[in-house]
What we know:
The complex is a heterotrimer.
Chain A: H1 2-31, H2 39-57, H3 60-84, H4 89-112, H5 127-131, H6 138-144, H7 148-166, H8 168-178, H9 180-185, H10 190-216, H11 228-238, H12 243-266, H13 272-276, H14 278-290
Helix pairs in contact in A: 1-7, 1-10, 1-11, 1-12, 2-3, 2-4, 2-10, 2-11, 3-4, 3-10, 7-8, 7-12, 11-12, 11-14, 12-14
Chain B: H1 2-30, H2 35-47, H3 50-75, H4 83-100, H5 106-134, H6 138-160, E1 162-163, E2 166-169, H7 189-206, H8 208-218, H9 220-225, H10 230-257, H11 268-278, H12 283-307, H13 312-333, H14 335-348
Antiparallel strand pairs in B: 1-2
Helix pairs in contact in B: 1-2, 1-13, 2-3, 2-12, 3-7, 3-10, 3-11, 3-12, 4-5, 4-6, 4-10, 4-11, 5-6, 5-10, 7-8, 7-12, 11-12, 11-13, 12-13
Chain C: E1 9-20, E2 23-34, E3 38-42, H1 49-56, E4 64-69, E5 72-74, H2 79-84, E6 87-90, H3 102-107, H4 120-134, H5 149-162, E7 167-171, H6 179-194, E8 198-203, H7 206-212, E9 215-220, E10 223-229, H8 235-243, E11 261-270, E12 279-287, E13 291-295, H9 302-309, E14 317-322, E15 325-326, H10 332-337, E16 340-343, H11 347-351, H12 358-362, E17 373-374, E18 379-380, H13 382-395, H14 412-424, E19 430-434, H15 442-457, E20 461-465, H16 469-475, E21 478-483, E22 486-492, H17 498-505
Helix pairs in contact in C: 14-15
Amino acid sequence: MGSFIANLLLATVRMASPLIFLSLAELYSQRAGLVNIGIEGLAAIGSLTGFLISLITGNPLLGVLAGALAGILVNMIFAYATITLCAEQIVYGMAINIFAPALAAFTYRVYFGSGSELVQVELMGTMKSMFGIKSDNFFVNLFLDQTPMVYLAYILVIVTAIYFTRTKSGLNYKAVGEYPKAAATLGINVIGIKYLSCIICGALAGIGGAYLTTCYSKTYVDGNVAGRGFIALAAVIFGRWSSGGVLIACLFFGFCDALQIRLQLVNNTLPYQFFQMIPYVATVVVLAIIGAKKAGPRASGQPYRKEER
Amino acid sequence: MKRNGIGALVIVPLLSIIISFLIGCMIIAALGANPADAMRYLLKGSFGNMRNIGTTLSRATPLIFTTLCACFAYRCGVFNLGGEGQFIIGAIVACYIATKAPFTGFPAIVLCALAGAAGGGLWAAIAGVLKVWRGQNEMIITIMLNYVATLLMGVVYTNWLRDGSVPQTVAVPDETQLASFFGLRATVAFPVAVIAGIVLFYFLFYTSSGFQLRAVGLNMTAAKVNGFNVKRYLLMSFIVSGAIAGLGGALELLGTQLRLINGFAAGYGFDGVAMALIASLHPLAGIIVAIFFAALRVGSTTMQTATGVPTSVSDIIQALVIVFTVAGMAMVKLPEFKNWFARRARKEV
Amino acid sequence: MAVGSPQTEVLRMEHITKKFGSVYANRDINFDVRAGEVHTLLGENGAGKSTLMNVLFGLYQPTEGDIYVRGQKVKIESPSQAVKLGIGMVHQHFMLVEAMTVFENIILGDTRSKGIFIDRNARKEEILELSRKYGLDADLDHPITELAVGAQQRVEILKALYRGCDVLVLDEPTAALTDQEAEGLFEIMNKLKQEGKSVIFISHKMREVLRVSDRITILRAGQTVETVNIGEVSGEELANRMIGRELKPSQYVKSDSSGEIVAALDHVSYHKSSKHNGLNDVSLKVHRGEIVGIAGVDGNGQSQLAMLLTGNIAPEEGAMDLKNSKVTRFDPNGFIQENVSHIPEDRNKAGLVGNMSVADNLVLKSTRDKRFSDGNGMHLKKKAIRSYALEMQEKYDIRCSSVEQESRNLSGGNQQKVILARELEASPDLLVAVHPTRGLDIGATRFIHDTVIMQRDMGCGVLLISADFDEILEVSDRILVMFEGQIMGEYSGKNPPIDEISLAMAGK
């Protein structure tokens, strides 16, 4: 039982990491007033790109980097449509959710042909294996049996918290999501920050997707993001648009994910699908419980136009 | 003014389709195939003979249902992204009735259809209740419920209704399968889908309830102040759109798939959303768009066999159409664009 | 900081013209400001005051004309450039981020200090010094949402001073203030003057204009009428020049109907403790054939009163009668069935479905009516709806390219006429009209007043809520004053005691 809990906790930390990237992506987007429900799609393209590049170069870190780039590129479509053309954000996010996975699936087909054999890629090593540590102590595992990406995720949470609460730039950034017109009268470059938010969002979503193929699973399959992009949306609401809150939400959802995997392994009476439902059902239940206290950036979802009368 | 508006609703998607096909052709050329050949096989595969037309209509049928599901919900301002889950639940319910009911044939078909619709409607109502009484974001909830429905279907075909060693359910008995539509590969589910579209069109544009539902979708505050029962309409839009998808699922099972299996209905929900948006939420236009995309998919199989271009090119083209259409719709609404257009028009006169 | 002698010119706008499409919002306007003066821009709604200031602040680009700051010709392309030139502006709708604190709002967009992090202590010290110098007390760590309107305004002024402004534009600063708060503002303006700062004061309230101005520039219909020194012209003369005609007493015959009561509130309370969004022990009656005007500064419970009388909210205490029967269920549809009509406060948000056509909006409430559908709404008669819409277009003088035009593309006045047509054609027993002429031109305002008076004469009871005191005086048969959710007093609409009512509006 002790090892069950230890393994559960270790898995929680690991499973929360991709969610943290994706949720922070959404957080940066919404803080600038852009609700991007296309995170799922951005993660899909990031995942495929990460997979391909780490396969080609043999370097998972390069894969992650390429995943970030791919996320940025695709999110620039969203940026142009919603910021410059003032397209409805929800609708356009949906378009991204259709476009990006299709692009990922197509690229995979073209690269590997229609053969059914799954190509495998070498995963990123953990710190423990890198330093050749042999100990199997729980704390060693918790803190060292992790890939660099896990550290990056948690560092980003701290950096984000500091950015939005302690820096001048972060304050300006938040003002764009709250009241862009007021921000503009204070000389803040509203359009610029909105585009910047899309770059950050695309990069983080791409990294979150690439995590899945460089640190989590050796193969790429269509739909491997498995709704994490949407759970990230819930995590941002659950986390009340703060970096710390998002972390707690992601740990919770990561725990649900870890739990379902662990339960599948120990239980063989119930069909495994019931365990797989846990993260999704948990999301619905959590949203139902917290209700809809209107919170979050005030200008979220609204287009911003300059000379208006 | 109004004519101008409708013009944009037709021209923008058409232009988007043309541009997307051009990009598609470039991709095909880049893959080393002849785009003209590819396009010829695409057309031949989808509409080349009666058999292929039948296949196209058969593929279009479930898409029409999920498109109508999205059209209806969005007209009321409800972003139901759960068409897929509702479709699957409808199919699960129908699968149980078709394989377990003591009777077969027409009564079983009717019961399957009604129960499938009810199942889809109830499944959507979960999100509806959470939206109306807890004010929750329906997009996330409906998507989560899609995953739950897909997993539930997994339980059904791997455990509860498993057909021997294969992870699939037993097949629907012959007598309960849908009749073919004029000897084509498509079944009577296709005309049912078209009729559903016509009924929705009539409801939305020719009845007082449809009028009020649209008003709720366009301006909820004004609808409330003007005495409409907003909560009722919101809930209704969830249930009805879910029922449409559920009916689609039931008929897809009885007509085409015959059993539940891994990958059943995968992607149909989001496809429906895309098609509804391209059709500007118009049910009749939605039918046409759904047939168009079904043709693209069916034809791409022939294209792949003949030219080696992977079928997923058609997915890319479809995705590009939605990307361009939505952006184009937004663009023609921009004041800058309107001014530019007005200036051009004045010059020409 | 350049503190010039009182006669130094700090700012001059020459021949400013601003067109929106083919409409002139400003036409050949000349305007200048000297150091240490309060220069008032006086004009009616729509006279072009705000446009001119938005041009000055870089929010709009002038179609023609030049701006000079301290003798240098400048081109102001953005607000930040205006700020660099020493121009600060307090907008009518405050540009404050509500989710942030006072401190955060003041330092927002700050570029003066280097470094990534917010240097809280040093910045706070600086702000506190400013606030002491100008008597602008503010609790820096308070969130904006918890501040009263007057306090928010002080934050806006501090914000401008923190950015080193020499010329401060105050756009209708007293519109939402109580008299006491306004007094405080005038004191602050005096301090600013003493420190050599200039204030551009925008207002149409004659009393305060005469009280605070050094010079006054009158705008009318987008053009400069003239610039005068204080003391040269009397208040009445100014008013006449501002509106371009004699200010006349009401042209309508006031009725003193004591017909049947159509609506009555009996000691009604709603969110009692909220001074700005609640009702506190309100009792009132509306009779057939009278217009009851509710006077008061915006945000003293008027919105809630209107919502209550139309069934959009239910009272927490007290009771309401409609035509002598007690209301048991508060829902808008029930009230509509009881013949209550409503011209809502926000016509775009609550009055119209902007993306629907004029015709659809005209029949919005009555699609189940036999005239417009068969079988209780089962089949809409599109032709009948269209011909009805054409009839209404004619009757209410709705100017649109066709009745199929989307109502959001109509001008404000024509949108309001669509609502008016819909609400009055229902032959209401009670009409609740909230700011029915806000933002409309004189012609449309006149039309709406005439129509409402006609409805009154046909036996409708009207409750008119307006923040425009002149409108209240013009059409009301009886005037009630609201302040912080309470009714402060009742006055006759015939020869109303204006001073007394003004005091009541300030809570005295």
